[in-house]
Amino acid sequence: MDPAPADGSADPAADRTAAHLSPPLELPPLLAANQDPEVAAWRQTLPAVLTQTLDALELRAGAPFRPGGSASWVAPVRDAHGVELVLKVSFAHDEARDEAAGMLAWQGYGAAQILHAEQRAGSTVLLMEHVRPGTSLRDAADTSGQDDVLAPLLRRLWSRPDPLSVHPFRPLAQMCSWWADEARKRLAVSQLLAPGLVEHGLGLLTELAADGESDQVLLATDLHAGNVLRSEQGWVLIDPKPYLGDPHYDLLQHLLNEVPPLLADPAGRAAQLARRTGLDPRRAQDWLLARCVQEAGVMPGADRAAQLLARDEHG
Fold first, then answer.
1. 188 exposed, middle or buried (CB, 10 Å; 0-12, 13-18, 19+)?
2. Residues 6 or more apart from 314 whose CB is under 8 A from it?
3. Structural domain boundaries, residue 110
4. Same domain for 219 and 280?
5. What is the pLDDT of residues 249-270, one digit of tens each?
């Protein structure tokens, strides 16, 4: 629950929001625990944004899904006709800047159905079909079964024609350049990987992003089994962070999130998923090495996977 104003009076926005909610407004655990100053400031605006959104769209909301996201409030809602939908109100931070535009671009190409999208007072508001956390692909299938779903879903997402006619999406090279700079500084301090491997991996990160611009598609960039939910139309994408770039990049988050099979055979996993999506296995392995170096010390197993991939590369 957001704190009351310093003068001890009730927060009018929170009171008005409570009229639409059953039970009254609450914050899911991950959002409540987020100590980032920008998220904390945005959190104070959430009651007013929810009030305005629920009023405007004639919605009544239930309690948010738990544990929820660290920068979003997502809950089941019912419209004026009693139809159950899902409302997501997110902090419009830079990484997820184009989420709504991407979801709209992918309507009919594998994303959850969007009924309403807008930017409101530093928030991204999405009203979507009834897809629920708890019915994710991660909960429903093992790694092999996940690959069976993700491979055709990726091909469908990449088939979206002319994404720049929908929105000025950013190039993947922009994100990779920033990540390479950040990782180079971090790894120089931690010395988790040999300096030569760091330079090789981060060099690949920027080179692959730059030379893949000729075959660019609209990428989800955060596609993994936890961001694929079951709906009436089948398995659908949620929570993309869209960029334009090399389709090989979209294999990576799923590979990185499945740590045991990644560490068992990182080169083989990359090649296997590449073949299933019609991509180049060697290029997929290079991309995975680049991301494993960049994520070393941040994502579990990334440093070890980078070392294994480098060994295979020179073996």
1. exposed
2. none
3. 12-128
4. yes
5. 999 999 999 999 999 999 999 9
